[in-house]
Design goal:
7-stranded mixed beta sheet; alpha/beta; about 725 residues; Rossmann fold; TIM Barrel; binds alpha-D-glucopyranose; Immunoglobulin-like; 28 strands; 3 domains
C-alpha cells in the first residue's frame, strides 16, 4: 500500500512539474506550437540590436541567432555538388578538420541530363543528409541560372538551357534537401549567366525573356518546391544589384510569388544600406570580399546591415516593421531547421551516398555517337585498350571555385576502367597531353608516346574535355574559346590516323567544338561525375549500364552559331559593364531551331545501346478550354536486345501566333525504362495554362486561342510524330 502511495505521489509531482514547466516554457521553445506562433513569440522578446544582428554575417559562413534566448546561429555551406569542408572563421581556405571529407555528387548538368525528377529527389535527399550531419542550417545550392552561352564558367553548376527542364529538376532537389530539415538556397537570383564582370555587369533583358526563360526555375523552386532560401546574384539588373533589387526581390519574389523564406546575398553582393534595407535583402554575407579570394579586413559591424542599419533605425530613417519582416523570415528559417526537434539526424560520406552518386552518373552520361557498335567494349572483339588523356587521372571534385570539395573518395576514370576491364583486357595508359604544358617540347613527347600506345591497341579511349582550371569550367572567369584546350584536337586527329577505333570521352560541364567529330567512332559526354566518376564511366563503356542521358543544352558547331554570340559584344560579354540579351527568348534550341541552324548535337539528344520505336501520338480531345490539361498518349517499344531507358519529349509549336515564338518549346517529358521487346503506353500531360506566353502589354500571362502542334520527339531535332489540338 505504502509503495502504491509513494508511486502516486511521484507521478503527481512529475505531472505538476511538467505542466508548470510547460507553462513556464516560452512558446518559441515549445516544439508543439505552430512555427508562426513561435516566430511571433521570439520576435516579441527580442531587442532591435538582436534583430539587426540576425541580418548580417558574423563569420565567413555564419550569421547570429539570439544567444540570450537560446536561438542558434545560422550556418551555411556550399554547394550544389557536395558539402564543402569546414573553413576558418574568417578565411576561405579549409580549417583542416579530419572528419569533413564528403561524398562528391555529380555536377547539376549531369543531374539535368538524367531527365529524371526521381534522381533529383534522391540527389537532394542525400546531399541534404550530409548537410544535416554537418549541422548546416542552409545548403548554398542548387543553382538554376540558364545556359545562354557555352563560355559561362559556371554552367556545370546549373541545369542547362531549358527553363522547363530546370523547373522539373529543381523542385524535387529542393524537396529532397529540405526533407532533412536543412534549407536549400536556390541561386543566383537572377540573370547571373556568365562570370565575366559578374560583380557589376548590368543585364538588360525584356520582361518576356525574363519571365519565360530566366525566372521559371526560380519560380518553380519557390511556388512548387517551397524553397526556404534564395540567394541574390552579384550582377545588376536594370541598374540595381540583384542582392538589393526592388523589382526582383520585393515585387516578384516576395510579392507575386509570396516567398516566405530568407533572401541571402551572394558573398560580396551588397553595396548600399538604403537599398539592402528597403529592397528585400534579409541576410548580408561576405561583404567587402569577391566571393572567392579576398577576405576583406572589415569588422562585421561595418556591414551595410550592421551598425549603419542600427544607426539608421535609431535615427528613425528605417522602419521597425521592415526590420521585423527580415527578423521573422530568419526566425522562420531557424524554426524550420535547427529548432525543428523532429528533423532526422542525417548521414555523411556513406556507401549509400556513393551509390546515389553512381546511379545519377550512370543515368546522366550521354552517348553522342556510336558507329559500328564500337561500344559497349566486349571481350570477344577487343584485347588491348589504350587509355589516353590527362582527364583519365585528373581529379575533378577539386577546383572550379566555391563548389570545390574535399571528398572521402574519387575514383578517377583510369581507376574505374582498370577495376572493370583489368582482368579480361590489357589496359595501357598514356597521358597524351598535359594541362599547362601544351606548347612545350614535352607536349610533343607526350603526344608521340600516346600515338605509339594507340597504334597497337584494339580500341583507343581518349579521356579528355575540360577541367576546372581558370578559363575552363570555373567560377569567376569565363572560357576564352569554344574549343578543347591543351592541344587535344590535334592529339585526337593524330590518334585517328593510327587507329580507326577511337572513342572520345569528354569530361566537362560545357559544350565544346569537335573538329574531329567525323573521324572518331564514338563520343561519350561524361560530366563531372563526383566520387564514383571512374566507376560510372566504366559502367557505361562496358555495357553494364545502358546509357540513357539526354543533353540539357545544345552543342553548337561553332560559337558564332549561338544566339548570345550573334549580336556582337553588347550581347556578350557586354560593353562597359552593360549587356543586352539581344537573342531575347530565343535561347539554346529555341534559337537554333527557329533560325534553322543545325547544332552539332541538339538539346534532348542521347543515344542508347538499344533502340526505341514510337507509335503516333494521340491527344485525348480535339478542343480544350483554358483550364484543361492536354493528355497525349502513345506507345513506346524497346525494339533492341538490351534493357534501356528513353526520355520521350513533347514540344509545342504555335503556328500563326500573334507574337514571335520559338519554333518549338519543351512542355513535357518522361523517362521510360523498358526491357527488350516490351511496349509501354505513355501519357504526357500538358496543362493548357503552360502554353501561355508572357504578355508585356498587360505584364501577365496570355494563352492564345487557336491551333497548337504537339511534337512527340526523342530530341529537339528528332520528331517522331505530331498531333494538333485547338484551344478555345
Ligand atoms: C560565391 C558564389 C556562391 C557561393 C558563395 C559562398 O561567390 O557565387 O555560389 O555559394 O560565394 O561561397
Amino acid at each position: 500500500m505504502k509503495r502504491i502511495k509513494s508511486t502516486l505521489v511521484s507521478i503527481f509531482l512529475v505531472a505538476v512539474t511538467t505542466i508548470s514547466a510547460q507553462q513556464k516554457l516560452p512558446i518559441y521553445l515549445d516544439a508543439t506550437k505552430p512555427i508562426e506562433q513561435r516566430v511571433e513569440n521570439a520576435l516579441s522578446l527580442m531587442t532591435t540590436q538582436e534583430k539587426v544582428a540576425l541580418c548580417h554575417a558574423q563569420s565567413k559562413f555564419s550569421s547570429k541567432g539570439v544567444a540570450r534566448l537560446g536561438i542558434p546561429e545560422v550556418w551555411m555551406d556550399d554547394g550544389p555538388l557536395g558539402i564543402r569542408e569546414e573553413v576558418y572563421w574568417d578565411q576561405w581556405n579549409g580549417a583542416h578538420w579530419t572528419n569533413d571529407s564528403c561524398t562528391g555528387f555529380p555536377a547539376l548538368t549531369c543531374l539535368a541530363a538524367t531527365f529524371n525528377p526521381k534522381m533529383a529527389y534522391q540527389f537532394g535527399k542525400a546531399i541534404g543528409e550530409e548537410a544535416r550531419y554537418r549541422n548546416k542550417t542552409m545548403l548554398l545550392g542548387p543553382g538554376v541560372n540558364i545556359y545562354r552561352t557555352p563560355l559561362n564558367g559556371r554552367n556545370f553548376e546549373y541545369m542547362g538551357e531549358d527553363p522547363f527542364l530546370s523547373s522539373q529538376i529543381v523542385v524535387p532537389y529542393v524537396e529532397g534537401v529540405q526533407s532533412n530539415g536543412v534549407a536549400a538556397c536556390v541561386k543566383h537570383f537572377a540573370l547571373n549567366d556568365q562570370e565575366t564582370w559578374r560583380g557589376s555587369v548590368d543585364v538588360q533583358v525584356s520582361d518576356r525573356a525574363l519571365h519565360e526563360i530566366y525566372l521559371p526555375a526560380f519560380k518553380a523552386a519557390v511556388t512548387q518546391g517551397k524553397v526556404w532560401a534564395v540567394m541574390g546574384s552579384y550582377n545588376q539588373f536594370r541598374g540595381q544589384h540583384c542582392c538589393e533589387n526592388d523589382l526582383l526581390l520585393n515585387k516578384i519574389l516576395k510579392g507575386n510569388w509570396k516567398f516566405d523564406g530568407v533572401v541571402v546575398s551572394d558573398w560580396g553582393g551588397v553595396h548600399n544600406t538604403d537599398e539592402a534595407v528597403n529592397n528585400g535583402l534579409d541576410i548580408e554575407m561576405g561583404t567587402y570580399t569577391n566571393g572567392l579570394t579576398t577576405n576583406g579586413a572589415f569588422p562585421y559591424s561595418d556591414y551595410y546591415l550592421a551598425d549603419p542599419y542600427l544607426k539608421g533605425l535609431q535615427d528613425g530613417k528605417y522602419s521597425e516593421s521592415v526590420l521585423n519582416d527580415k527578423a521573422r523570415r530568419i526566425l522562420r528559417l531557424i524554426f524550420r531547421t535547427t529548432m525543428n526537434i523532429h528533423r532526422p539526424w542525417g548521414s555523411f560520406g556513406t556507401a549509400a551516398h556513393a551509390e546515389v552518386d553512381r546511379k545519377i552518373a550512370d543515368q546522366g552520361i550521354v552517348l553522342l555517337k556510336n558507329e559500328d557498335h564500337v561500344l559497349p567494349i566486349e571481350p570477344q572483339q577487343v584485347k588491348t585498350i589504350a587509355v589516353i588523356g590527362e582527364n583519365a587521372t585528373h581529379r575533378m571534385t577539386i577546383g572550379g571555385g566555391s563548389s570545390s570539395l574535399k571528398v572521402n573518395q574519387e575514383i578517377v576514370p583510369l581507376e574505374g576502367l582498370t577495376t572493370r576491364f583489368g582482368k579480361d583486357f590489357t589496359l595501357v595508359h598514356s597521358i597524351g597531353y598535359s594541362s599547362g604544358k601544351e606548347n612545350s617540347a614535352e607536349a610533343d613527347s607526350l603526344r608521340n608516346a600516346a600515338i605509339a600506345v594507340a597504334k597497337n591497341a584494339d580500341v583507343v579511349l581518349f579521356i579528355g574535355g575540360l577541367n576546372k582550371d581558370p578559363h575552363q569550367d570555373c567560377e569567376g572567369v569565363d572560357r576564352l574559346s569554344y574549343g578543347l584546350p591543351y592541344g587535344q584536337d590535334q592529339l585526337i586527329d593524330s590518334l585517328t590516323k593510327v587507329n580507326k577505333h577511337v572513342v572520345v570521352v569528354l569530361i566537362s560541364g560545357n559544350a565544346v567544338a569537335m573538329p574531329w567529330v567525323n573521324n572518331v567512332q564514338a563520343i561519350v559526354q561524361a560530366w563531372y561525375l563526383g566520387s564514383q566518376a571512374g566507376n560510372a564511366i566504366a559502367d557505361v563503356l562496358s555495357g553494364d549500364v545502358n546509357p540513357s542521358g539526354k543533353l540539357p543544352f545544345s552543342f553548337p558547331v561553332k560559337l558564332s552559331d549561338c544566339g548570345a554570340h550573334s549580336f556582337g559584344a553588347i550581347a556578350y560579354p557586354g560593353v562597359d559593364q552593360k549587356e543586352i540579351y539581344k537573342e531575347d527568348i530565343l535561347v539554346g534550341y529555341r534559337w537554333y531551331d527557329t533560325k534553322h541552324i543545325r547544332p552539332l548535337f541538339p538539346f534532348g539528344f542521347g543515344l542508347s545501346y538499344t533502340s526505341f520505336d514510337y507509335s503516333k501520338p494521340v491527344a485525348n480531345r480535339k478542343v480544350y478550354g483554358m483550364n484543361d490539361t492536354i493528355r497525349v498518349t502513345f506507345r513506346l517499344t524497346n525494339s533492341g536486345k538490351m534493357a534501356g531507358a528513353e526520355t520521350a519529349q513533347l514540344y509545342v509549336s504555335k503556328p500563326k501566333s500573334a507574337v514571335e515564338r520559338p519554333e518549338k518549346e519543351l512542355k513535357a517529358f518522361q523517362k521510360v525504362f523498358l526491357q527488350p521487346s516490351k511496349t509501354e503506353t505513355v501519357t504526357l500531360l500538358v496543362p493548357v495554362k503552360s502554353l501561355a506566353y508572357y504578355d508585356e502589354t498587360k505584364s501577365g500571362w496570355t494563352v492564345e486561342p487557336g491551333t497548337y502542334n504537339l511534337l512527340l520527339a526523342s530530341s529537339s531535332q528528332d520528331t517522331k510524330g505530331e498531333a494538333s489540338v485547338e484551344v478555345k
